[in-house]
Amino acid sequence: MTAEPFGAPSPTAFQALSPDDPREVGGYRLCARLGAGGMGRVYLAYTPGGRPVAIKVVRPELAEDPEFRHRFTQEVASARRIHGLYTAQVVDAGTDAAAPWLATTFVPGPSLQQVVLRHGPLPERTAVLLLAGIAEALQVIHAAGVVHRDLKPGNVLIAADGPRVIDFGIARAADAGRLTGTGLRIGSPGFMAPEQVLGLPATPATDVFALGALIAYAGSGVPPFGDGPEPASLYRAVHEEPDLSGLPPGLHEAVGLCLAKDPGRRPGTAWLIEAARRHPATGGGLRLSDDWLPPRVSTELRRHTDLPTTPAPTTPTPAATDPDDIRTAVHAAAGAPTARFHPAPPATRPQPAPAAGPGAPTTARRGARTALLTTAALLVGAAGAFLLLDPGYFDDLDDQNVAATGSIPPAPPAASASASAPSAPTAPATPPQPTTLPGFTAVYTGLELTSPDHSYEFDLKTGKVAAQDTSTWYLGRHAGEFYIPEDSDAYVSPTGPLTLADCVKGIETQPAAALPFSAVQGDRSFCVRAKGGRDVAVVRPLATAPDDGPVRVSLTYYRRSA
After folding, report:
1. How many other C-beta atoms lie within 10 A of the C-beta of residue 428?
2. pLDDT tens-digit profile of 416-441?
3. Any long-range contacts for 296-300 (C-beta under 8 Å, 24+ apart)?
4. Cα dihedral 181/186/192/198 (nearest 10)
5. Which of 15, 76, 228, 270 sits 20 to 30 Å CA-CA off 407?
6. pLDDT at 490
7. At what angle do helices 269-278 and 124-143 cross, to 10 degrees?
8. What percent of the chain has pLDDT over 70?
């Protein structure tokens, strides 16, 4: 497992603080957990003045290792000297604390890994500007006497004003005490230079090799030495030439030089920046303006700049005694997709109204599910297969930046305030409906999530976008319709939004047998009730794609007390 990066969370990676999480670290008030990986836990926190920061707290077993502490202190001191515009800067640290910690600026944007997985290869101009920005970051890092050693798509955050390189140098601390037994490994297959694979010292040229592999991945969607098993990828990095066939021709020269086997033949960062400046796609000037990213990625980033309306709770509500409630968070993680199809509805359920439109036959899809699951591995595309390269990939997701469907929880109040009486509504046309019912608690409200394609589902209980067959209570989509677990029930509103009371009544009186997209267009919502009636989710579709494109929904989840 690689030493994981941090600086901002992954797609909606805000988890409520659990009972064993601290509430304050080094004077910083913790708001949510961003993830956990090989070196420790990462939290979203706020400075006394309200600025968000990412704080990593080292694992206890590493904190007890004197050699680790010594190296960690050295690397933090080096990293604090780095002040590049394309790096996530270290702002504070507690190297002498019982549990050492490190705070960096919080970058509200997805990782390059997440961008490519969701949107595919980047345009040539974007890739050239990315090359220049990361090369400048490496210049600053190397000038401080630091070698990154683990530059990869998961360690590059994509922001509106350019990329940010994170985790520079800190990974070296994990190597101090020969801690391979804990699962830590410096470097990531597909982006490791030959000298790293062979156990030779890492130099600035090692980072240049990783930069070439990273740009090849960004411009083609696959790593240059393949997306197969780890040993094969490492072997090709040492003995074979990279495959740049999917990369725009205008990037072949610079990337090919970066991937030279001999470190002495690789270009320096200044040469790479000048090569980017001369590239026809940049027009002779390097300016990371608002249009440096393709529109689909820029649209995703704009959602990161808005403060959330649904912060992750820092403590469970009195009714939330179930461990699932305590861990409820706005968190998305990717994985290798498998296949799941809408199960056949029970015979006692009424069929949907004709206006809803026919969906694909559910019984036929259910009969095909078993056979499809046996060949699920064949359904993994090139990007999905790459997930298998790095055992630390999911740790990286936990530790990285906010993605398209996430937003930053607001800082917790400095002191609790008494609730004030609500003001009276101004002459409503109709009496307002209660948003909840006695015995129910709103776990999250108005949470916007995006499923990139049908191999991802919405995990209703935890507020995640998850790979198929990884959730127990889910909302999926396939062939132009939504699907839910066989033991769940649904109700579609005739028009407009739904309250919890509407859902409970509608499910009992007019349950829906199918949820085709055509039935929930416009302002129509629907709700899903889990077996036993304890969990109810209200779903408002925001955007659907008939050709298996991205589907975006707004979710509100209620839980009834036991």
Report:
1. 8
2. 333 333 333 343 333 334 456 788 88
3. 296/119, 297/115, 297/119, 297/122, 297/158, 298/160, 299/404, 300/110, 300/115, 300/118, 300/119, 300/403, 300/404
4. -60
5. 76
6. 92
7. 150
8. 68
Residue written as token pair 């960690």: 72
Sign, CA dihedral 560-326-114-410, equals positive
Is the separation of the CB atoms in 547 and 515 below 8 Å?
no
> Cβ neighbours of residue 464 under 8 Å, at least 6 residues apart?
12, 329, 330, 331, 332, 333, 449, 458, 471
Angle at 340 between CA 336 and CA 341, to 5 degrees: 150
Residue whose pair of structure tokens reads 């910083």 in the numeric block? 28
What is the per-residue pLDDT for 379? 28
DSSP per position, 454-513? TTEEEETTTTEEEETTS-SSEEEEETTEEE--TT-EEEE-SSS---HHHHHHHHHHS--S
Over the stretch 340-359, which tens digit does the pLDDT of each residue have?
Answer: 333 333 333 333 334 344 33
For the question of whether the overall pTM of this predicted structure is more than 0.85, the answer is no
Angle of the 204-220 helix axis to the 124-143 helix axis, nearest 10: 160
pLDDT of residue 171: 52
Locus of tokens 């098993």: 229
Instruction: Tell me the residue type at 28.
Output: Y
DSSP classification of residue 265 = G
User: Biggest alpha carbon distance in the chain?
Assistant: 76
Residue 14 confidence (pLDDT): 64
- The angle formed by the CA atoms of residues 270, 271 and 276, to the nearest 5 degrees, is 100
Joined together, the tokens standing for residue 150 give 């683990």
Q: What are the structure tokens assigned to 242, written together?
A: 């990279």
Distance CA 1, CA 164 (A): 22
Which tokens go with 15?
């988890």
Q: How far apart are CA 440 and CA 558, in angstroms?
A: 6
Helix axes 269-278, 204-220, angle to 10 degrees: 30
CA distance 107 to 89: 10
Least confident of 35-39, 64-68, 146-150, 451-455: 35-39
Q: Read off the tokens for 155.
A: 């360690």
Among this protein's residues, is 262 annotated catalytic?
A: no
| Residues 286/273, Cβ–Cβ less than 8 Å | yes
The CA distance from 455 to 116, in Å, is: 16
Please compute, for residue 185, the number of CA atoms within 13 A of its CA located in the half-sphere on the CB side. Answer: 16
Interatomic CA distance for residues 390 and 189, integer angstroms? 6
CA 300 to each of CA 110, 159, 414: distance values in angstroms, whole numbers, following the listed order: 9, 10, 31
> To the nearest whole number, what is the mean pLDDT of the chain?
73
CB crowding 386-414: b at 16 or more within 10 Å, else e? bbbbbebbbbbbbbbbbbbbbbbbebbee
- Catalytic residue, chosen from 21, 65, 96, 150, is 150
